[in-house]
C-alpha cells in the first residue's frame, strides 16, 4: 500500500484528537439503528407500484465497446415504518422575479430560521413511527463479459443535493482500466428517498423532517432484503423482489461473511452526506461490508450551538433556483455560476439530463431534488455527522473494514473551518485506515475530478484484492 500512495498527498497522523463535548446527547449508546427496525413494508401497502419516473437510459460510455457494463434502473421500498413525523414544512421562496431580491432574501432567512426552530422542537420529541410507504431508486451497472469471473460488488451513496447519475463519469474512469474490470462485477448507485428519481416517486409525501437514521435504515433495508442473491447477468425486474426469507435471516445474522454467502461483502463508497450514512450503516452491521471509501464525508466534530445560528449551507439551498423554461436555459444559468464552472463537463451534462425533470402540469423544467429537501438534509448535518464522528472516535467501526478517506487537495477549503479538523477526522479510526488528497479538488470531488478519483478507486480495489489473497 505504501508504494501505491507514495506520490499522493495525504494527512499525517496528528499528535492528538480532541474528545467530543461532554454532553449526554453525544454519548450515543447502542447502535446507530437497531437491526430490528430495518424491514420493508408489507406487500399490500405497496400497491399500486409506481413506474420509473425517468425511464431506462444507456450509460455515457455505451458507444465504447471496451467497457462491457450494462445499466438498468430499479425501484425498492424504503424501510418501514417511517420514524420522522409529518409536519407542515415551509416552502422555499420563488425566484420568478415577482418579488425583489431584498424581499426574497428576507423570506429565505425566515424559512431557514423556521427550519432550525422546528428542528430544535423535533429533536426533543419522542419518535412517532407512521405507516407511510416511500420508494428508493438505484442504478445497477453489471459486467456483461462472461469470460471474466468474480469481482466485488460496489455500492455508491451520493452527496446532499445530488443524484445517482453524478457518479457515472467516475465509474467510467474506473472501468476504463481492464485491471479494474477484473475486480468489479457489479455496481449499485443508491438515491436517497428525498433526492432525484426517488423524490419524484415520493412526490406529495415528503412532508416530514429528515433524520440520518432514515437513510441509514433505507440503505440497510436494500442490502438485507433486496440486493439479489448473486450478481449474475439475468435481467432484473424494475421492482426488485425480496430475497428468500432464509437468505434474509442469514444476512441479518452473518451479513455477507462466511462460507454460506453467495456474495462477497460490499465495497461501499460515500460522498459527503452519503459518507456519513454509509459509515453509520457499517457500524450498525459490519458483516455486510468489506471496505469504506469516504469521499470528504460530512463527519464533523459536534457544534453545540449549531441550531441557534443561521446555516450558510441551508440558506444557500433554500435560495437555489428550482425552475426554468427549458434545459437549455438551465444549462446557461449553471455555466454562469462559479459553483458549476469547476465541474467536469460530463457531470454537468448529467445534472442537466438526470438532475432535472419536466413538470408536465406547468410545462416547466424543475430540480428533481427540491431546495427545501436539500435544506432539510443540511439542517440534519449536526445530527448524523457528529454521531459518525463520535462513533469513529470511540472505535466502533470494525477494524476488519478497510477504510480510506479521499479529501480535497492542498489549499482547498475544508468542510470545518476550525484548525486541523480534516487531519483529525481522517485519523479517527487509525487501524486499517489511510487517506489521500485529490489535487485541485474541493469538497465536490465527484463533480470536479471524477477521472482522478476513479483511478484512485481502482488503486484501492487492487490493494483490497491483494490483501484478501494474502490472507487466504
Automatic annotation (TrEMBL):
Pfam family, one: Abhydrolase_6
Stretch list, region Disordered: 1-23
Protein's UniProt keywords contain Coiled coil: yes
Keywords, ordered alphabetically: Coiled coil
Feature: compositional bias, Pro residues: 11-23
Domain of life, source organism: Eukaryota
InterPro entries in alphabetical order: AB_hydrolase_1, AB_hydrolase_fold
Residue ranges of coiled coil: 101-128
All copies of domain AB hydrolase-1, residue ranges: 155-453
Cytoplasm is among the record's keywords: no
Protein name listed in UniProt: AB hydrolase-1 domain-containing protein
Source organism: Collybiopsis luxurians FD-317 M1
Amino acid at each position: 500500500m505504501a508504494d501505491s500512495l507514495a506520490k499522493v498527498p495525504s494527512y499525517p497522523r496528528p499528535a492528538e484528537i480532541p474528545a467530543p463535548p461532554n454532553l449526554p446527547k453525544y454519548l450515543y449508546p447502542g447502535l446507530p439503528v437497531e437491526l430490528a427496525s430495518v424491514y420493508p413494508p408489507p406487500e399490500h401497502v405497496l400497491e399500486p407500484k409506481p413506474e420509473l419516473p425517468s425511464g431506462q437510459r444507456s450509460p455515457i460510455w455505451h458507444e465504447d465497446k471496451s467497457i462491457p457494463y450494462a445499466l438498468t434502473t430499479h425501484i425498492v421500498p424504503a424501510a418501514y415504518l417511517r420514524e420522522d413525523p409529518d409536519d407542515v414544512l415551509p416552502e422555499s421562496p420563488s425566484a420568478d422575479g415577482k418579488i425583489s431580491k431584498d424581499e426574497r432574501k428576507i423570506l429565505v432567512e425566515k424559512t431557514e430560521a423556521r427550519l432550525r426552530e422546528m428542528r430544535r422542537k423535533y429533536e426533543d420529541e419522542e419518535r412517532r413511527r407512521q405507516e407511510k410507504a416511500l420508494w428508493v431508486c438505484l442504478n445497477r451497472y453489471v459486467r456483461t463479459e462472461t469470460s471474466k469471473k468474480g469481482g466485488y460488488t460496489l455500492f455508491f451513496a451520493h452527496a446532499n443535493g445530488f443524484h445517482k447519475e453524478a457518479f457515472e463519469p467516475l465509474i467510467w474512469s474506473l472501468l476504463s482500466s481492464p485491471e479494474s474490470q477484473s475486480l468489479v462485477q457489479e455496481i449499485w448507485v443508491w438515491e436517497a428517498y428525498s433526492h432525484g428519481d426517488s423524490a419524484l416517486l415520493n412526490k406529495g409525501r415528503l412532508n416530514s423532517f429528515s433524520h440520518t437514521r432514515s437513510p441509514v435504515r433505507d440503505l440497510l433495508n436494500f442490502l438485507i432484503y433486496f440486493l439479489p442473491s448473486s450478481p449474475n447477468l439475468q435481467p432484473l425486474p424494475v421492482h426488485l423482489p425480496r430475497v428468500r426469507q432464509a437468505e434474509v435471516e442469514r444476512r441479518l445474522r452473518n451479513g455477507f461473511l462466511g462460507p454460506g454467502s453467495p456474495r462477497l461483502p460490499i465495497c461501499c463508497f460515500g460522498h459527503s452526506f452519503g459518507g456519513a450514512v454509509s459509515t453509520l450503516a457499517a457500524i450498525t452491521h459490519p458483516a455486510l461490508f468489506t471496505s469504506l471509501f469516504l469521499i470528504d464525508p460530512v463527519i464533523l466534530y459536534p457544534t453545540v450551538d449549531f441550531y441557534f445560528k443561521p446555516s450558510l449551507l441551508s440558506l444557500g439551498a433554500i435560495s437555489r433556483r428550482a425552475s426554468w423554461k427549458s434545459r437549455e436555459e438551465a444549462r446557461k444559468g449553471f455555466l454562469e455560476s462559479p459553483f458549476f464552472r469547476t465541474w467536469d463537463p460530463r457531470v454537468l451534462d448529467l445534472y442537466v439530463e438526470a438532475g432535472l425533470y419536466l413538470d408536465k402540469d406547468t410545462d416547466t423544467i424543475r430540480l428533481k431534488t427540491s431546495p427545501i429537501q436539500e435544506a432539510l438534509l443540511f439542517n440534519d448535518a449536526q445530527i448524523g455527522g457528529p454521531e459518525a464522528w463520535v462513533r469513529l472516535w470511540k472505535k466502533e467501526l470494525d477494524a476488519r473494514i478497510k477504510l480510506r478517506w479521499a479529501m480535497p487537495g492542498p489549499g482547498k477549503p475544508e468542510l470545518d473551518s476550525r484548525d486541523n479538523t480534516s487531519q483529525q477526522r481522517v485519523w479517527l479510526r487509525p487501524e486499517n485506515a489511510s487517506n489521500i488528497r485529490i489535487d485541485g479538488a474541493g469538497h465536490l470531488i465527484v463533480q470536479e475530478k471524477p477521472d482522478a478519483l476513479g483511478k484512485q478507486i481502482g488503486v484501492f480495489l487492487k490493494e483490497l484484492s491483494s490483501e484478501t489473497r494474502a490472507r487466504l
